[in-house]
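pipeline stage [seq->struct] | target=4-diphosphocytidyl-2-C-methyl-D-erythritol kinase | organism=Bilophila wadsworthia | residues=296
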Amino acid sequence: MDDGTMETAALRIGCKVNLTLRITGVRPNGWHELDTVFLPLAEPSDTLRLALRPGGGLALHCAEPGIDPENNTLTKAYRLFAEASGFRPGVEAVLEKGIPHGAGLGGGSADAAALLGWLNARAPEPLPLPELVGLAARIGADVPFFLYNVPCRASGIGERLVPCPEWLDAAGVAGAGLVLLCPRERVSTPWAYAAWDEWNRPLTEARNGAINRASQKPLDGASSIHWLENSFEPPVFEAFPRLRRLREQLLRQGAFAAVMSGSGSSLFGLFRDAGTAFRVAEGFREKDVAAYSHAL
């Protein structure tokens, strides 16, 4: 990829978990309103290797099954940035996936945000952050969060963000240990939303309208958050009972809270200290469950 004359970069790209995720209503177009808190994590991670090359356009290489090299979050990020900025460099990219697909960790969104930031840093006329965030929202609802890469509360369809770096302190979990489990099950996000719709069929249009109006109120950062819950859990756990059992195992091993992230399949548990989290993660790895420990 590099003949020694091109500018190159290797970007290590982390993921996210949803410390809380409530579906607060459904829009007339079928899109779901959310109230969620994103937390960035360093692992698992992807690596995006980039090199400027003569000409224009993005040439993407990825060995991960299921990723279309011609149509994905990276190609969309490049196209939208080029349209908005006029900057269309030739870029050769190799994506090495470490963030599992279908785990609710936002890997594709994180990759897109990393490419946007890299392009913007090299553009002759960089886009201001609000415009870059607007582009990111057109790629995916959680892409803007990865541009900030600090704890953020999100509402709407996930596009309205309020950075809340104080949230861990406010929630009383600063200094805790976090164990992230990435089981082999894969949960499709569109399927999870459809399953939630079926599970909540008794919701009336009037109630959804009232919920949606409430969700339009301005966010105020960390206050008023219903934390450590996930609206997807009932339908997802019904279809994937092993995920419920893994959450129960986290609780039995000392987690003071455990919850699924995003639409699944990843789950995390919070422990009183990082040392305990490290030992618990080791135990899950010995049972052939991918596990990562973090200090908050």
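stage status: PASS
auto-comment: The first helix runs from residue 73 to 85. The two ends are 37 Å apart (CA to CA).
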